[in-house]
């Protein structure tokens, strides 16, 4: 399949006027990638076209039963002026893994990655140049068949949109405050907690709104069975640096397998740290915060990058980690990861792909 180019003339294109303090996910570029699928026919109609609203039948499956999956990755403007993608092949593989779980058609990973690069190249003027900002890339697939019975859709659309972004949290690289909920759960074993599907995020809204009212930036989820073991933050995976061990919850099916998570584990192991993927109880975290055994806590994600956590609230008490300061490990990981992403440091793992 070829990607048809339906591009706006130069005089109709917008541009990024102010590059500093970019909001997250509110500005969109001029073009999008689009293709559709019909059962028995496969994916077709691949094109890069002007960014525009999508017209769907009110009976479309996605509206009623949420058959939808997405991805999130970024294009970085490098110190040498070249545009870099960070491990995009991992996002493509995760997209197809999500598709299988949600009974949706897989895509040709190489084809979609090439199309994504072509789109970023078309929109290269939109990649912000300030360090810390990037062009956020959002691929999304949804079931569009007009049918009210509950079954996998026979029709789908897939698109990629782009958004120049700054930091995800208003705190930037400063420690955030997190609320640990034992009232709500995000995902249960056997469910779709390890899939990047919209419903997981909708299900998290009530807890985050309640946390925000108490001035906490995000919610830390506990497991659904015992409400005891730490899972993830919903927009990021979570790490705890206990004395000589960097620990993160194991991927047991209820946690999103983050690409930043995977990269942090690899870098920390290569630096000689003992890294464990295991069950971590909230009691262990809080008693370690009190005794000082917990040296640091931070989240990892594409949008959030490395996000230090300075405070955890649980059952009406607030626990301070590292005096509410960014710790040296979080800083070192942040510097190394962003150094690779922006090209100011070598890429020993071959994680970078260039555009074009
Ligand atoms: C990402 O980090 O790319 C995500 O998908 C989190 C998002 C929901 C903001």
TrEMBL record:
Its EC number is 2.6.1.42. The modification N6-(pyridoxal phosphate)lysine is found at residue 196. It catalyses: L-isoleucine + 2-oxoglutarate = (S)-3-methyl-2-oxopentanoate + L-glutamate; L-leucine + 2-oxoglutarate = 4-methyl-2-oxopentanoate + L-glutamate; L-valine + 2-oxoglutarate = 3-methyl-2-oxobutanoate + L-glutamate. It comes from the Bacteria. GO terms for molecular function: branched-chain-amino-acid transaminase activity. GO terms for biological process: isoleucine biosynthetic process; L-leucine biosynthetic process; L-valine biosynthetic process. InterPro entries: Aminotrans_IV, Aminotrans_IV_CS, Aminotransferase-like, B_amino_transII, BCAT-like_C, BCAT-like_N, BCAT_family. Keywords: Amino-acid biosynthesis, Aminotransferase, Branched-chain amino acid biosynthesis, Pyridoxal phosphate, Transferase. Its cofactor is pyridoxal 5'-phosphate. Pfam families: Aminotran_4. Pathway: Amino-acid biosynthesis; L-leucine biosynthesis; L-leucine from 3-methyl-2-oxobutanoate: step 4/4; Amino-acid biosynthesis; L-isoleucine biosynthesis; L-isoleucine from 2-oxobutanoate: step 4/4; Amino-acid biosynthesis; L-valine biosynthesis; L-valine from pyruvate: step 4/4. Acts on leucine, isoleucine and valine. PANTHER family: BRANCHED-CHAIN-AMINO-ACID AMINOTRANSFERASE, SUBGROUP IIII AMINOTRANSFERASE. Belongs to the class-IV pyridoxal-phosphate-dependent aminotransferase family. This is Branched-chain-amino-acid aminotransferase. It comes from Thermodesulfatator atlanticus. The lineage of its organism: Bacteria, Pseudomonadati, Thermodesulfobacteriota, Thermodesulfobacteria, Thermodesulfobacteriales.
């Amino acid at each position: 399949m070829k990607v048809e180019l339906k591009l706006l003339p130069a005089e109709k294109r917008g541009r990024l006027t102010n590059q500093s303090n970019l909001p997250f996910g509110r500005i969109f570029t001029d073009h999008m990638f689009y293709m559709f699928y019909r059962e028995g026919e496969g994916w077709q109609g691949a094109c890069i076209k002007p960014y525009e609203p999508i017209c769907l039948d009110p009976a479309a499956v996605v509206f009623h039963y949420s058959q939808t999956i997405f991805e999130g990755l970024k294009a970085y403007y490098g110190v040498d002026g070249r545009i870099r993608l960070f491990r995009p092949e991992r996002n493509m593989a995760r997209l197809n893994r999500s598709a299988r779980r949600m009974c949706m058609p897989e895509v040709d990973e190489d084809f979609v990655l090439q199309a994504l690069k072509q789109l970023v190249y078309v929109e290269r003027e939109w990649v912000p140049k300030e360090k810390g900002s990037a062009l956020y890339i959002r691929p999304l697939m949804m079931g569009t068949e007009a049918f009210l019975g509950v079954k996998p859709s026979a029709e789908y659309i897939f698109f990629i949109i782009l958004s120049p972004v700054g930091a995800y949290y208003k705190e930037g690289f400063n420690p955030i405050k997190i609320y640990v909920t034992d009232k709500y759960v995000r995902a249960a074993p056997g469910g779709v907690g390890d899939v990047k599907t919209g419903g997981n995020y909708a299900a998290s809204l009530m807890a985050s709104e309640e946390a925000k009212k108490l001035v906490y930036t995000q919610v830390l989820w506990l497991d659904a069975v015992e409400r005891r073991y730490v899972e993830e933050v919903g927009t990021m995976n979570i790490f705890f640096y206990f004395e000589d061990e960097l620990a993160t919850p194991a991927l047991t099916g209820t946690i999103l397998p983050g690409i930043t998570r995977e990269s942090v584990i690899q870098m920390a192991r290569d630096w000689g740290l003992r890294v464990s993927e295991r069950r971590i109880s909230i009691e262990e975290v809080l008693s370690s915060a009190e005794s000082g055994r917990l040296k640091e806590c931070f989240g990892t994600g594409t949008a959030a990058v490395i996000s230090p956590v300075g405070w955890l609230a649980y059952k009406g008490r607030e626990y301070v980690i590292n005096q509410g300061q960014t710790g040296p490990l979080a800083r070192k990981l942040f510097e190394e990861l962003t150094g690779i992403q922006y090209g100011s440091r070598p890429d020993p793992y071959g994680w970078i792909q260039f555009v074009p």
